[in-house]
Design brief:
- The complex is a heterodimer of chains A (about 100) and B (about 900).
- Chain A is about 55% helix and about 10% strand.
- Chain A has about 100 residues and is mainly alpha-helical.
- Chain A has a two-stranded antiparallel sheet.
- In chain A, helix 1 packs across helix 3.
- In chain B, helix 6 runs antiparallel to helix 12, helix 6 packs across helix 14 and helix 12 runs antiparallel to helix 17.
- The chains are: A mainly alpha (about 100), B alpha+beta (about 900).
C-alpha cells in the first residue's frame, strides 16, 4: 500500500486537507498551515507537494467554476482519499511507537 | 481599492507553470493579493517559488512521456518500411562502432582473467619497458610484500621471450614468460592439470620445469593427461612439464598469447647475468603485484617510490646507464602492460575515427528518413498544434520516435557487432615473429554502455532537424494541401552532399592504403627475393660447442651447396624481412655507443642474398676467430659516420659499455642498403659480422634454387636430415612469403578501411536513393502535367536524375577537398607515396559516381512510368 512513510511536510499538507474538508483549496490550505503549524509555505512548495500526494493517490482534486475574486480563474479543490487517510494513520502510529516511553528532560 | 497584480510576475508565472495549473495558482495568488492588500515583493517571491512546481515530477508530464513513447511505437509499427530501414542503417553504424570499441576496450581496459583482478596492479617505470633489475625486485619483495611490508600481499617478477618450443621433434616459435616462483600465488591462478611452480624450482641449478598454456596443451598434446612429466625443449634446455594453466589465461603481456611459463632461474641468460656479482642492473624484469587488503593504489605507489629511492641510495649505480623514471602503479589491465600500448593506440584512433564517420553517415540517412516522413505527417502535426500542443511537445514526440528507433538500432547493432567481433578476431594474422596476438572480443557491460550512449547521441543528432521542422511549421500553410517542399528539400540536399563527401573521404583513404600496399610490394628490397628459400635451424649446446658448431655448419653448407638444384647457399643469423639483431657500435673509442641493426653472416652470403658489395670486399675464409676483427657496414652507416670518406679501413668498436673491454673491428667492405625488417621501413644503419668471429647457434640457411623455391622445401629437409638427423629445423619459407608477411599490418589496415569505406558508401547510396525517390514522389503531379503536355518520358527522367547527379557532383567535389586535407594524417602509413596520390583519388571518385548513377537511376525510372491521368488526380 502506497509508498514509504509520509514526509513531514507531506503529513502537514495532508492533515490540512483533511481538516478543511469540503473547503480545501489552495488559499485556505495555506492559511491553515500558517496558522496551526506556524510555518510559512510558498505557493510553489505547496502545489508541488499537493501534486506529489496526488500522484501517490493520497488525495484527489477537481476543478470548480471561475470566480470573480480570482480575476476570473477557477479553483482546484482537494480531497483526501482512503489511501491517504491510511498513510496518515500509519505515520502517526509510527511516531507514537517512537515516542513511547521517551522523556525529554 | 484592490491593486493590480504585477503583470510581469504573472506572465512569468504562466510561463513557469503553463496550462490550467498555472491558472489555478495565479488565481490563488490573486485572491491572496487582494486580501493582503498588495505586496509586490511578496508576489514576486511566490512566483519564484513556483520553480519548484516546474521542476517537480509533475503529475501531468510523467504520463506524457510514456504516452509519447507509446505513440512513437504505434507510428513506427504502422510504417514498417521506414522504421526497418532506419533501424538497419543505425544498426550498421552502431554495430561497426561497437565492434571497434570492443577491440579498443580489450586492448585498453580489459583486466587480467584472474580472481579479484581489481587488486592486481602492474608496476612500471615511466618511460621504460622494464621496471627494475632482478636484484632490486628481491629487495622490493622483501620490503613491500608480506611478511616484510603491508602494501602488497605478493610481488612477482616476469619477462617475456620469443623462443622455440620443441615437442617430440616438432619445433615451433612461440612466446613464453619466465616468472618468479610465486607467479601463480600472487595471481591466485589454479592449475587445470598438475600444478604451478614451487619456490625450490626457482633456484639456479634446479631441475627445470614448465607449465603449458591451455592452447599449447590442446594443440601439441591433444589434452591428454599424460602431458604431466613429459619433457619439452626450449633452445638448449630440456624442461619437465608439471602443469597446465587454466583455460583463458594467456599470460600477463596482453595482447600477446603465451604458450609456456618457466621459472626465471631456469633461463641460462638470467643465471649467467646473476652470477656476475658486480652487475646490479641486469637482468631486468617487470613487476606485477597484488595489493594487500584495504590498501589503495596511491599509498602503494608512494610506498614503492620510497623504497625505490632507498634502494638507489644503498646501491648506487651509474646514472648514465640506469633509467631514472618514476615508478608507476596501475591496475593491470590492457594498456598498462607495455606491449599492448604500442599495438593499441594508433590502430584505435584510426579505426574509431573511421567508424565514427560511418555512424555519422547512418545518422544522416535516418534524419533524412524522418524529414521525409515529417512531410507526410505535416497535417497531423498541424492539427495537434492547433489543439494546443506546444512546440516542445511536438519536438518531444519526435525525440521519442528517435529514441525508439535508436533502441532498435542499438539492439540490431550489438547483434551485428557480435558477428563482426568474431570476424575481426579471426582476421588478425598469427605471425610468430610478431608475437601471436589474440583478441578475445566479447560484449561486456562497457561495450553495451558504449552502444547505448552512442545510440542516444545519434537519436539526439538525427531528431534535431526534424524536431525543429515540426515545431517551426506555419500552421495555415500546413492545414492546406501540399506544404512548401522547397525549403525543406534544401536542408536534405545539404545532408546528402555531406554524406557523399564523408563516404568519399573514407573511400579515398581506403584506396590510398591499397595503393600503398601495392607500392610497398614493388619496393626494391635491396636483395633478391625470387628463387630463394630460408630455413631456420638450431645448432644447440650441449651437442655442439662453438668450435664444433662452426665445423658442423661448414659441413652442412658444403652438403647443401652440393645438392642438385641449388645455385648457392649461405648462413645468417637473421631471416630477411623477419627480424633483425642489434649491436652497439662506436666509431671512436670514447664516443658513446649507438645501436645499429646487425647480422652475422658467412662468406658467400652477399652473393646468395643478392646484395652487392659497393666497396671493399666480402668476408673470407681467412677471417677466422683468431684473426683481426672485421665488419662490413651498409651505405647508411658509412654515410652517417664517415660522410664523404671511404669507410673501408676505418675502425669500429663493438659493445654497449664504453668503459668495459670491447671488440675492435676494421671495416673491410660497404654493402648496398637493403630492407632488413619490413619493406616499408626507413633506411637504417647496418653492420655485418662474420660468423667465425661471433658464434650463434640459431641461424637461417638461405638457399638460392635454380627452380621454383617452393618445390625445394622437401628436398631441403631431406638434405638436412641426412647431415644430422637430430638437427632441429623450423619454418622453411620462401623469401617471397616473408616479404608478403612483413606487410601484414598495412594489409590489415587497408582491408578494414576498405570494408568500412564500402559500408559508408552503401549507406550514402541508400541516402541518395531516398532523396531521388522522394523527389519523384513529390513531383508526381508536376511530372504528370509535363507528360500530359507532351514531354518525352526520357526527358522527364533526366530532369529527376539531374538533381541526384548534381548533388553527387557537389558532394564529390567537397569530398575531394576534404580528403586532400584529411589524408595528410595518413602520411605515416604511406611510406614512399604521396597522400594526394591521383590514382587513388580518381578511382574513388569514379567508383562513387557509378554507384550514384545507379542509386539515382532506379527511382528515376519510376518517373518515366508515371501515368499522367493518375498523377493529375493525386492529391
Amino acid at each position: 500500500m502506497g509508498d514509504h512513510y509520509l514526509g513531514e511536510f507531506e503529513q502537514i499538507v495532508l492533515l490540512a486537507v483533511v481538516r478543511l474538508g469540503d473547503n480545501a483549496y489552495g488559499v485556505p490550505i495555506r492559511r491553515e498551515i500558517e496558522k496551526r503549524a506556524d510555518r510559512n509555505v510558498s505557493v510553489g512548495a505547496l502545489y508541488s507537494t499537493l501534486d506529489r500526494l496526488e500522484a501517490k493517490g493520497y488525495i484527489s482534486s477537481w476543478f470548480a467554476d471561475p470566480t470573480s475574486e480570482r480575476g476570473g480563474r477557477s479553483r482546484r479543490y482537494f480531497r483526501a482519499e482512503p489511501q491517504g487517510i491510511e498513510a496518515l494513520a500509519l505515520a502517526k502510529e509510527m511516531f507514537d511507537r517512537m515516542w513511547k516511553g521517551v522523556r525529554l528532560a | 481599492m484592490p491593486k493590480e497584480t504585477p503583470r510581469i510576475a504573472e506572465w512569468l508565472l504562466r510561463r513557469l507553470v503553463p496550462g490550467r495549473e498555472g491558472e489555478i495558482i495565479a488565481g490563488d495568488l490573486h485572491e491572496e493579493f487582494v486580501s493582503r492588500g498588495g505586496g509586490r515583493l511578496w508576489y514576486w517571491a511566490e512566483v519564484m517559488s513556483c520553480l519548484a512546481v516546474r521542476l517537480s515530477p509533475h503529475r501531468l508530464t510523467a504520463p506524457d512521456l510514456r504516452q509519447d513513447l507509446h505513440y512513437a511505437v504505434r507510428v513506427l509499427r504502422r510504417n514498417p518500411g521506414y522504421s526497418l530501414t532506419a533501424m538497419l542503417c543505425l544498426g550498421l553504424g552502431i554495430g561497426v562502432n561497437s565492434t571497434v570499441f570492443t577491440m579498443v576496450d580489450e586492448l585498453f581496459w580489459e583486466p587480467l582473467p584472474v580472481p579479484h583482478s581489481d587488486r592486481v596492479v602492474a608496476i612500471g617505470r615511466a618511460g621504460e619497458e622494464m621496471t627494475c633489475s632482478y636484484r632490486d625486485y628481491v629487495d622490493f619483495d622483501r620490503r613491500l610484500a608480506m611478511p616484510g611490508g603491508h602494501q602488497f600481499s605478493g610481488l612477482l617478477a616476469y619477462d617475456d621471450l620469443a623462443t622455440s618450443l620443441d615437442v617430440d621433434g616438432t619445433s615451433r616459435i612461440i612466446m613464453a614468460e619466465a616468472v618468479s616462483s610465486n607467479f601463480a600465488n600472487v595471481l591466485q591462478l589454479p592449475a587445470q592439470a598438475g600444478r604451478w611452480f614451487t619456490p625450490e624450482e626457482d633456484r639456479p641449478g634446479s631441475d627445470p620445469v614448465a607449465v603449458l598454456s591451455d592452447g599449447a596443451w590442446e594443440r601439441r598434446f591433444g589434452r591428454s593427461m599424460s602431458v604431466i612429466g613429459r619433457r619439452v625443449r626450449i633452445e638448449a634446455q630440456w624442461y619437465r612439464v608439471v602443469g597446465v594453466a587454466p583455460r583463458g589465461f594467456l599470460g600477463v603481456s596482453p595482447p600477446h598469447t603465451m604458450e609456456l611459463w618457466v621459472p626465471l632461474m631456469s633461463r641460462p641468460e638470467v643465471t649467467q647475468l646473476l652470477a656476475n656479482a658486480g652487475e646490479r642492473e641486469r637482468p631486468r624484469v617487470r613487476l606485477i603485484g597484488r595489493l594487500a587488503p584495504g590498501i589503495g593504489m596511491q599509498p602503494a605507489e608512494a610506498a614503492f617510490r620510497l623504497v625505490d629511492t632507498q634502494i638507489r641510495r644503498e646501491f648506487p649505480r651509474d646514472p648514465a646507464s640506469t633509467p631514472a623514471g618514476l615508478v608507476t602503479v596501475a591496475i593491470a589491465a590492457g594498456s598498462t602492460m607495455p606491449a599492448a600500448r604500442q599495438v593499441a593506440t594508433p590502430i584505435s584512433i584510426l579505426l574509431l575515427s573511421v567508424t565514427g564517420i560511418v555512424l555519422l553517415i547512418a545518422c544522416v540517412n535516418v534524419a533524412n528518413l524522418l524529414l521525409s516522413r515529417s512531410v507526410v505527417r505535416e497535417r497531423e502535426m498541424a492539427v495537434r498544434r492547433a489543439m494546443g500542443a506546444s512546440r516542445w511537445r511536438l519536438a518531444r514526440q519526435t525525440l521519442a520516435e528517435g529514441l525508439v528507433l535508436a533502441a532498435g538500432g542499438a539492439t540490431l547493432g550489438l547483434s551485428f557487432g557480435y558477428g563482426a567481433n568474431q570476424l575481426l578476431a579471426r582476421s588478425l594474422p598469427a605471425l610468430p615473429h610478431v608475437g601471436l596476438v589474440t583478441l578475445d572480443l566479447n560484449i561486456n557491460w562497457r561495450v553495451a554502455a558504449f552502444a547505448a550512449v552512442i545510440a542516444a547521441a545519434s537519436a539526439l543528432l538525427f531528431t534535431l532537424s526534424p524536431a525543429i521542422e515540426h515545431s517551426r511549421q506555419d500552421l495555415s500553410l500546413s492545414l492546406k494541401s501540399e506544404g512548401a517542399p522547397m525549403r525543406r528539400l534544401r536542408q536534405r540536399d545539404v545532408y546528402v552532399v555531406a554524406q557523399v563527401a564523408l563516404s568519399l573521404t573514407l573511400l579515398v583513404a581506403a584506396m590510398l592504403l591499397v595503393r600503398a600496399m601495392q607500392h610497398a610490394q614493388r619496393i626494391e628490397p635491396g636483395f633478391a627475393i625470387d628463387r630463394r628459400l630460408a630455413a631456420r635451424i638450431y645448432v644447440s649446446e650441449p651437442e655442439y660447442t662453438p668450435d664444433s658448431g662452426q665445423l658442423f655448419l661448414a659441413r652442412l653448407l658444403d652438403a647443401v651447396r652440393a645438392t642438385p638444384g641449388v645455385r648457392s647457399a649461405a648462413l645468417s643469423y637473421t631471416t630477411p624481412l623477419s627480424f633483425s639483431d642489434a649491436v652497439c657500435t662506436a666509431v671512436e673509442r670514447d664516443a658513446r655507443p649507438h645501436r645499429a641493426a646487425s647480422d652475422v653472416v658467412v662468406p658467400g652470403y652477399f652473393e646468395t642474398i643478392g646484395t652487392p658489395i659497393e666497396r671493399g670486399r666480402q668476408f673470407e675464409i681467412t677471417d677466422q676467430a683468431g684473426s683481426p676483427g672485421v665488419v662490413i657496414v651498409n651505405e647508411t652507416f658509412a654515410a652517417r659516420y664517415w660522410p664523404n670518406q671511404d669507410a673501408v679501413g676505418k675502425t669500429v668498436w663493438l659493445g654497449c659499455d664504453a668503459k668495459a673491454p670491447r671488440t675492435m673491428a676494421e671495416v673491410v667492405g660497404v654493402a648496398k642498403d637493403a630492407k632488413y625488417e619490413s619493406l616499408d621501413e626507413f633506411p637504417r644503419s647496418f653492420v655485418y659480422r662474420p660468423l667465425s668471429q661471433s658464434w650463434v647457434g640459431f641461424v637461417a640457411l638461405i638457399v638460392e634454387t635454380s627452380g621454383a623455391p617452393g618445390d625445394f622445401t622437401a628436398p631441403l629437409r631431406g638434405v638436412l636430415h641426412r647431415v644430422d638427423p637430430n638437427l632441429r629445423v623450423y619454418e622453411i619459407q620462401t623469401l617471397e612469403q616473408y616479404a608478403a608477411d612483413s606487410l601484414w599490418k598495412l594489409r590489415w589496415q587497408a582491408s578494414l578501411l576498405a570494408v568500412f569505406g564500402g559500408l559508408a558508401m552503401l549507406l550514402a547510396a541508400v541516402g541518395l536513393y531516398g532523396i531521388v525517390a522522394y523527389a519523384v514522389a513529390q513531383r508526381t503531379r508536376e511530372i504528370g502535367v509535363r507528360i500530359a503536355m507532351g514531354a518525352q518520358r526520357a526527358d522527364v527522367m533526366w530532369m529527376v536524375l539531374g538533381r541526384g547527379l548534381g548533388l553527387t557532383a557537389i558532394g564529390i567535389g567537397v569530398g575531394l577537398v576534404l580528403s586532400a586535407g584529411v589524408t595528410r594524417l595518413l602520411a605515416m602509413l604511406l611510406y614512399g607515396m604521396s597522400p594526394l596520390d591521383p590514382v587513388a583519388f580518381s578511382v574513388a571518385s569514379l567508383g562513387w559516381l557509378t554507384v550514384a548513377m545507379l542509386a539515382s537511376y532506379i527511382p528515376a525510372r519510376r518517373a518515366m512510368k508515371v501515368d499522367p491521368v493518375v498523377a493529375l488526380r493525386w492529391e
